[in-house]
Amino acid sequence: MSKTGSITVTIEGSNSSTTLPLLGGTLGPQVADIRKLYSSLGIFTYDPGYGETASCESKITYIDGDAGVLMYRGYPIEQLAEKSDFIEVCYLLMNGDLPNKAELEKFRKDVTYHTMVHEQIRRFFDGFRRDAHPMAIMCGVVGALAAFYHDNLDINDPRQREVAAFRLIAKVPTIAAMAYKYALGQPFVYPQNKLSYAANFLYMLNTVPAEPYEVSPVLERAMDRILVLHADHEQNASTSTVRLAGSTGANPFACIAAGIAALWGPAHGGANEAVLKMLAEIGTPDKIPAFIEKVKDKNSDVKLMGFGHRVYKNFDPRAKIMKETCHEVLAELGIKDEPLLDMAMEMERIALTDDYFISRKLYPNVDFYSGIILKAMGIPTSMFTVIFAVARTVGWVSQWKEMIEDPSQRIGRPRQIYTGAGARDYKPMAERG
Ligand code: CMC
Known about the structure:
Blueprint: E1 2-10, E2 17-24, E3 31-32, H1 37-41, E4 61-64, E5 69-72, E6 75-76, H2 77-83, H3 86-95, H4 101-112, H5 121-126, H6 134-148, H7 158-184, H8 197-206, H9 217-229, H10 237-246, H11 252-263, H12 271-282, H13 288-296, H14 317-332, H15 339-353, H16 355-359, H17 366-376, H18 384-404
Antiparallel strand pairs: 1-2, 2-3, 4-5, 5-6
């Protein structure tokens, strides 16, 4: 980050003004450094939802929303989705560069060494209702990891940070699969370290003691791609939550549990589940036009789930790859007529030609297709956001590590415009109306 210029802020009608530095990164717009704005002019900035605020310096992920660009550590997402795999992407996100063969092998071992969870964690599950949403279980059990692995909770020790990161990346899929099995009433499945990250996850989800289970290479590849595409997305709501929680010095397991909670919402990670619910509610293609009218009605709060993005105002590059993967998976599974996919395609066609969506730059996002793929793979909708959480854990962990290692890091503490009552005196009960 370097100074690229300056900006002068003048309060209209007064003589007060100040000059603030403009900062630039490798790519992206310049940023006004407002750190001295309050001390020099006595004013704060107002930016609900932080849409125009850079909350940190980061070297991990770059998005150009207008051009539809997403890069991890400078590598375009399209190349990573095609040529890399999830475990290599994890190394890249965490370490800044692609590994050589030995580094990748060591990293793979370091992660797989931690795939099992403490046996006592099984007992935790007994406390949940069988019909609990698996994201509720994820929030609880991932947060509880701090109670089991407190030997490595000194966030100021780089080695302890690294071990906590490996534990999280390795154990989150195991916990996710346990949450799934618990809802089904089936026994938990121990991880198989000889399998790839994606294959092991599918294995833990789908294996039952009574039947052999072979992971299909096409489904393994599809799951791997879903994981790669969701691995990081710069300062989105859940990542910012992880950073905010981490800025207080909270332990990494607590921070990732906070990220899981933020991801759960339907405007964020919960959208893939919401897409399928929406398609099921619409029911048949002939009802799509009426639904679209409802979405466009200012007086309704109905949204077209899987459409729109805070940052992508052209297309979501992840959605393009997901669309291709969706067709590959349906072909592999021999699904020729998938009514939900037909409905999704029709919806996409109508929305992309409708002025409401065009003028607001609303395009399909990654979640528009990922839900259809997961459904075709036999995964129930309640697990969709959990799979997003499995993928995003490495992004959260990498961003958390970067934040802890950033010397300019301070506790996150936004300000506000207060619009409540002015100062007033307490009234005894007898004097209140
Ligand atoms: N359907 C209908 N109208 C929409 C939609 C939508 N999905 N998204 C935005 N709009 C409208 C919005 O009502 C507003 O209209 P107007 O200008 O008339 O008031 C305009 O488009 C601008 O929207 P906004 O609310 O300012 O956009 P935002 O950046 O605050 O919200 C979003 C982004 C993702 C929360 C929103 O587009 C949305 O709720 N989409 C549906 C949920 C979804 O698919 N989320 C997944 C995002 S991708 C996965 C991830 O990274 O988490």
